[in-house]
Each structure stands twice: as C-alpha cells, then as structure tokens.
Amino acid sequence: MLLVALVFASYVYFAQPEPYAPSAAVGSLGLASWNLAGVFTHLFMHQGVHHLLANILPLAAFAVLLETTMNAGGVLFVFFAAGTAGGLVYVLLNPGALVIGASAASSGLMAAATALRPKQAILLAVFIAVLATLFVGPASDYFTAARKTQVQAEIRVSGEQYAQTNAQLMVAKSSVESTGERIAEFDARGETEAAARERAILAQQQAALAQAEREAAQASESLASAQGKAADFARGEAQENAPVSSLPHAVGALVGLLVVLRFRKGDVDENLRSFKAWLARVSARARRGGRQNGLTS
Q: Distance between CA atoms of 223 and 229, rounded to whole angstroms?
C-alpha cells in the first residue's frame, strides 16, 4: 500500500489540476537512453488518469496478494527489479523511446503472485479486467473529456478577453494621440487656456492608457497560460494513446517469476504439482463423462 500511495501521490503532485503531467516533468523523470537517471523515478510517473488506474489497480491487488506469502522487502524487490529491468531493456532496444509508468513492475508482481498464489491471482485478474472494462475505463474517459472541454473553454474565454483588451488599448492610444495633436495646435496658435484644458484631459487619458496596457498584458498572459495548458494536454493525450509495447511487460513478468523461483522454488514446485494433479482430475472426469455418454447413446 506504500507503493500505491507513492504512485498516486506523485501523479497528483505533477498532474493536478490537469490530467497530464507537464512535458518537462515527464522528460526529467522518465527513463530514456539519454536519461538513465530515471531508472527508478519513471516507475512513479504516469500520464493521464487511464494510465494511472490501469497500473495502480493491478499494483494494489497483486502487491497485497504477494505480501501474504512474501515479506514487504520481497514485494519491494520484485517491484523495483521487474520495473527497472523492463524499462531498461526497452530503452536499450529503442534508443529514441521514453518510458514512464509502473506497468512492467505490476507485471512482475502479477507473475510472482501467480506463481505463489495461482488460484487467488487468477480470480484477481478476472476481477480487475471486469472492473477496468465496466468502470475504470469509462470513468477515466469521462474525466479526461470533461477536463479537455474546460481547457478549450479557457482558451476561448482568454482569447475573447485578449481581443477585447487590445481593442480598448488601441482606442486609448488613439485618444492620447488625438489629444496630443490638439494640444500642439493650441500651443501653436497661442491658445493657452484651451491647451491647459486639453492637458488635463490628456492626463486622464494617459492614466486610462496605462490601465489598458496592464489589462492587455494580463490578458496576454492568461491566453499564453491557456495555450500552454492546451499544448501540455495535447502532448499528454498523444503519449497516453501511443501504442503500448508488450516487451517491458514480458521482461517484468519474467523477472518477477525468476525472483520467486530463486527464493521460493519449493512453493512454486508445489503449486505446479497441485495444478498438474487438478488437471489430471479434470481430465479423468471428462473421460468418465465421455464413456458414460457413449454408453447412454
């Protein structure tokens, strides 16, 4: 559960209030051939609600199941060994790739738990598949779509404010220029009183111009911020929907299996013998049923 809490907390820290983490965080904490420092941190970086839940559900279920037969240190060892091995193998074979997420680590936990608790692991796998299909997938898609609508609305509102404040700024500039021209004309004709009145008006117009410039700058910043959110959203959406390779998962599962074979081979052999005996009983019942059906017919 500590692993689950760390994975969830890291997502909340980097992604909220957006569903996707900024590209700078993904690049610095992800695992790549140019960033091998992310060999551990990439396990706690997820891009999007669907990516997070798709990893955190099997992580929680199979880590807890595995901890019923291994101590916490063993569970942590399987998690990090499977996750780092799966990520490293993939980036070494694909130098331009960037890897994030705990899927390889979760695969290692699933393989280890299946080797030590096969019946419970199979039931958990079926339950998680049903839960993901019926609830997790639709819920994450709904949340992501809702947030995408909000980001698009922010851009639209910010764009309207930007256009409005810039129009007001142009009007204020035009007023200041016109008043300045009138003052110059009055001064040229020696109409000091009229020039003084225009200078008082000019002072007010210059104050309004300064205010309009501040509002235009704020609107420009708001628009740039909204556009940045939209760009991060688009990048995150593309990363979340990118094709998923089975290689890290296969390597992670293999490492998880090798760990339990190294330290718990006796339990694995006993489970294998039990499975073979169960399979033999099922086959015997099927053969007896076939002979009885043959006699009946």
A: 10
